[in-house]
Specification:
With about 180 residues, this protein is mostly helical. It is built from 9 helices and no strands. The C terminus is likely disordered.
């Protein structure tokens, strides 16, 4: 695209870029993001950065510039996501382990011990490892579902589950987590 084919004011420049390359940008982002629900937010950030460009006339190839900015935004998004802690509500897992009222008191004591052990084990694990363990063993999520929820690859989820299993074996917590 030649320089003269783009408007000179910033908003028109970005609107023209969005109209010409918006669909390709969304496809580019959806292929590279683990969570497709992040595509609109990342695309918006790309266009916001384009709005901050002071001299659009210096851009020789708007398409190449757009995808370069998109690559940088993707990299920052990935770094930010990897730093985010993952939260799993332990009360959901605990409620599934409780014994209904009127049941055997010994079972209630056993359950209370299992819950305490589970909380202790989860507290010793990194957040994503603990989240993967609870989601898989307690909530019954599949590896692909956990990967999508945590925003990581399936291989990472498998490594998290392996690490959690190793940790449980070392701490003799296998019974509490798998029963």
């Amino acid at each position: 695209m030649g320089l003269g084919l783009l408007p000179s004011d910033t908003k028109s420049f970005v609107a023209t870029i969005a109209a010409r390359y918006g669909r390709r940008l969304r496809r580019f982002l959806s292929v590279r993001l683990r969570n497709v629900h992040d595509v609109p937010d990342v695309a918006q950030e790309v266009f916001l950065r384009l709005l901050r460009v002071e001299r659009q006339d210096a851009i020789r190839n708007p398409e190449a510039y757009l995808f370069t900015v998109a690559s940088h935004v993707l990299q920052q998004h990935t770094l930010n996501r990897s730093a985010d802690p993952v939260f799993v509500d332990i009360t959901d897992a605990v409620s599934e382990l409780t014994v209904p009222a009127g049941e055997d008191p010994a079972a209630k004591v056993d359950n209370a011990e299992r819950i305490a052990l589970l909380e202790r084990v989860l507290g010793q694990l990194p957040p994503k490892v603990g989240a993967a363990l609870v989601m898989h063993r307690v909530s019954g999520f599949t590896v692909p579902e956990i990967a999508e929820h945590l925003g990581v690859s399936r291989d990472s989820v498998k490594k998290y589950l392996m690490r959690a299993a190793q940790h449980c074996r070392k701490g003799h917590a296998v019974r509490a987590v798998s029963e």
